[in-house]
Amino acid sequence: MDPDYFRSYEMCWGTLGTMRPFSNFHPDRDAIEIQAALEKKDALTLVRILTNRNNAQRQVITKTFEEMTQKDLTTSLKKALSGDLESLLCELLMPPLQYEAHRLQQAMAGLGTDEETLLEILCTRSGEQLQEISAAYTQLYKKDLEKELKGETSGDFAKLVSALLNKESVASAVQRDIQTLMASLNEKKADPGPWIDILTSRDTDHLDKVLMRLELESGQLTDQVVQKRFTGDTQLGMKVLVQCIQEPYVYLAKRLTTMKAPIVQGIMVSHCEEDLLCIRVAYKKLTGTSLYTALQNKFKGDYLQALLGVCRSED
Q1: What are 219-239's pLDDT values in tens digits?
Q2: Rounded Cα distance, 182 and 176, in Å
Q3: For residues 143 and 137, is the Cβ–Cβ distance under 8 A?
Q4: pTM, to two decimals
Q5: CATH H superfamily, domain 249-311
């Protein structure tokens, strides 16, 4: 890891991300080093540079590299590298909104749909962020994200996914929402409609109060209520949504415990400049092991070094 990273006077230590602006930033120098590393297939140099610059700086490097070599940096990386390392470094080069759009597209690509990755993004992003991601999706793939999501889902789950994508905050009384949710559970078959409506259209503080009071009145955790009263994809969607309302970092930490490369990589790249420090804390509390150590126990080689660069340090 570059020691100048730690000497940076520009570092935003108040942020909750692990990847921050590199103070001694010279894009021309970086582009020259990257060009030489690509020719030698020197993966460690590529990892050192690309995991020690924030995304805005990587965009400048990409542009400088193209101007200097008349080549696309992502294409050049794909020619020089392979496997998980190639995938990770190429994803680090994507602008954040494009990366989220890419993850959604990948979750819907091929046979079957990765419902939990769809839910992870839709449940942990604000309505404003999702509108920006939706616009990026249209720009990248020339398709409407909501139509694509509807084509991949059905029934109440499709309604939930659509409501999440278009979530907005609507004022309401806490007690009224509790009564509405309780009434939906009194039917022989629980009606997901009120749950979808309320849980996707209130702010987090309001929903925290609603779910806390709901648990007091029902005598059960909300997660248990959802488990008992809903089924299939709708149950999965409700469970993820409830977890993300109550403890989003714990939910993401649980996802990381799978130690499956696509999940680990997706979450770490998505959150490295926003709140990966919070996810690291939740992971340590949940498992008793730091994320940094867990990565070392699972992965190896240059890919491990890249993941450690994104994770940044031991807890």
Answers
A1: 999 999 999 999 999 999 999
A2: 10
A3: yes
A4: 0.92
A5: Annexin (1.10.220.10)
